[in-house]
Specification:
- The chain is mostly helical and about 130 residues long.
- The protein has one domain.
- Helix content is about 55%, strand content about 0%.
- Helix 3 runs antiparallel to helix 6.
- The chain starts with a helix and ends in an 11-residue tail after the last helix.
Length: about 130
Amino acid sequence: MKFALALPLVAAATLSAAPALAYDADWKRGRIYYRAICSSCHSTTPNGVIQPNSRTKAEWVVYLEANKHDKGKEPVTKYFSSDYLNSIKASNKAADRFSSVPADQLLQDVLLFLQRSAKDGESPASCS
């Protein structure tokens, strides 16, 4: 009986001691997301599409870490959630493609794309 109780504790201790698996962001998926989701919405706003090369790598990090979109009215993370993607999939066919991807992974993908495509990135780019 003591063995039966000890086994789950040992398993839990072993799992918690294992290093967390880091996610390798995919800048190509980030580029597709940015162009298909972010840019499609921004193209209908007065501000227009925000080009990746309009900011430096550091500025993109600060913006995403601040988590303030639309002058602080909403969190940036909202736009990576499955709830948001499900809400726009009737008007944006790409949204369905991303709705099963964890929001934190999409955010990391987009950040990597933005850093790569920033003014001071290895491949400054616009979304035209």
